[in-house]
What we know:
Order of helices and strands: HEHHEEEHEE
Helix content: 55-70%
Radius of gyration: 21 Å
Amino acid sequence: MKRLIIISIIVAVLGVFLAMAEILLFDFYEESVVERWANFASIPFLVLLLIVLTQDRWRSSLKEGRERIIQTIKYVFKGVIGTWLFYYFILIPSISGTLLLINYYIGGQKIVKISGLVTGKTAISMQRGAKYELEILTESGKLVLETNGIAIKPYEVGSSFEETLEKGSLGLLTKRKTNR
């Protein structure tokens, strides 16, 4: 159990670093695409975590009777709640940050000029701080970029959007922060 706690703390610290990478490094990025990928990538982690949490409890509770089964159900319920919290606050943000870092640093970058009309500007209150979603209608369709409060200031709904972004190795659009 000690080993599981130590590993969880290490993963949490690494997860916080990776989750903060997208906020600290990029002005614009395609978070909705990354989050969708992260949801699929995290399923094996969740299944493995639930198996580890419940494996020995079920075996012993079946041998010891009704009272032990009720305790095991409570334990599993707490485990599911803990797993969900781990998933939402650590796993998804850290996988998202990792995918963005892989996209930006591994493989080639292609410069892409994006121009269009801003159709939506939404403030999102997330577990990782305040972020904004900018919806842009381009010639090729709707593009949704996430950004911080500083980068979004010049854009209002109905205004034109023109930025030079980089398309990375995973095909995600990002723009590295510039010194302001």
